[in-house]
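In this section we turn from sequence analysis to structure. A common task in structural bioinformatics is to predict how a protein folds when a small molecule is present, because the ligand can shape the pocket around it. The inputs are simple: the amino acid sequence and a SMILES string for the ligand, here flavin-adenine dinucleotide. Study the lines below before reading on.
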Amino acid sequence: MKEFTLRERMTMARQTMPEQPPGERRANFSEVNLGFTAGLAVLEAQRCLMCSRTVCIDGCPVGVQITEFIDLVAEGDFDGAAKVIKRDNSLPAICGRVCPQEDQCEGACVLARKGRPIAIGALERFVADYERLNGLMTAEPPSVRSGKAVAIVGSGPAGLACATDLAKQGHDVTVFEALHALGGVLTYGIPEFRLPKEIVQAEVAQLEKLGVAFVTNAVIGMIDTLDDLLGEEGFDAVFVGVGAGLPRFPNIPGENLIGVYSANEFLTRVNLMKAYRPDSETPVYDVAGKRVAVFGGGNTAMDASRTALRLGAEKVAIVYRRSEEEMPARNEEIVHAHHEGVEFQMLTNPVEFLGDDEGFLTEMRLQAMELGESDDSGRRRPVPIAGSEWTEGVDMAVVAIGNSPNPLLPKTAADLEQTTRGTLVADDETGRTTKEGVFAGGDIVTGGATVILAMGAGRRAAASIDDYLRGGVWESKPAGVPV
Ligand SMILES: Cc1cc2nc3c(=O)[nH]c(=O)nc-3n(C[C@H](O)[C@H](O)[C@H](O)COP(=O)(O)OP(=O)(O)OC[C@H]3O[C@@H](n4cnc5c(N)ncnc54)[C@H](O)[C@@H]3O)c2cc1C
């Protein structure tokens, strides 16, 4: 294999991942990105400068040994590379597809200064796919058992990551999931064209091989409470990873009109209930040939707008109160939405939805905004421009302006302290809550965040649960957590 000099590596072009052409993909639900070939992966890996100060690893919330795995890719040892990643990240095929790499590992890459960071996400995805598609994934329950049982509530990335580590440590792990399908947002929120569900299922199958038990249609708080789990059900500890799936609305007139959806409901109907199929028992409003407005600027808004296009909408517009620069969505999703023909109506906010006599949405009243001073998020605050309102015709509106923590479980456990935002109070390092034996992590603690942050929290909690089960002392109050 050719060895490149440092100078050559610094000037080599970043490899581009092949993708379905925009005109084709906007009419199907198949994956947009097609993944690196082995040849592209090796070429891309050979660009890595192998810096001695691994800033890319510092930029990864779970500390994947990036240079080590990329070195193996450059040598063509893809299975070895997958095993290196798996030491720190149990869901690489998922993270390679959905992590905001530009803000994390790739953002920190020295070559990012030249606008050509190593495509770490695409390489991670490639080796994880290589391992899965070649039947090289391995999992076996450890023979030495701890004799302790842990319940995990919620099967999103936080719960799955926590379950993986605890199972590897020899504990008996049972995951309780409210829905009939496992994976949390990975399954019901992120669409098939970004994250094929067979990948989530393959990861869950690995956990089953590790000995993890899954119970679906189990809403903890309704069937069993946390006290039941820790009492008569015989669990020694519980991890709560119930996420932030409660949609927020702008609280404007007309929100109850037919045709106004939360992004959660719209995406769940399409992703989980396959509402686009004629035989689906949970249909979705027929948008074929119609006008759709999606409110918000995050990944959820991009997913909803691109889903509406695939359902045949004639026109789909993202309506966002700030400018494109402030959008929190991943860059790639914004670019893909543009390419597929989603319109971007920036510095615009809804003030009212209007309907006909039968209660169907027909129009929306909008207002122009301008950017003021920066707010707590560091982004410039949107300020309404007085007297700037106008009305536009619309057939469906999807509200994607954020989610609040799922309230059901916290409501049924009075001794589980919550913040004023409805998130659970839990120690950032250990996941310990205010209730003995109960740990928490992911969106239920941070509010809506990212897959990798949820996984990181799940892993830290697993380490802390392991310590607790092996005789560690329970500290009554999580340290350093604002209430
Ligand atoms: C549409 C959409 C797109 C996104 N895109 C990205 C992206 O591209 N990249 C990225 O990094 N992040 C993305 N995110 C954010 C990311 O998915 C979340 O931050 C992450 O899934 C949080 O993980 P979690 O395990 O905390 O919760 P979740 O994934 O929400 O999982 C929680 C699970 O708990 C279950 N549950 C809730 N209450 C109970 C109960 N009482 N009993 C039993 N089970 C319960 C829920 O049904 C759910 O399955 C996206 C989010 C959405 C909504």
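The two ends are 57 Å apart (CA to CA). As an exercise, try to locate the residues that line the flavin-adenine dinucleotide site and compare them with your own expectations.
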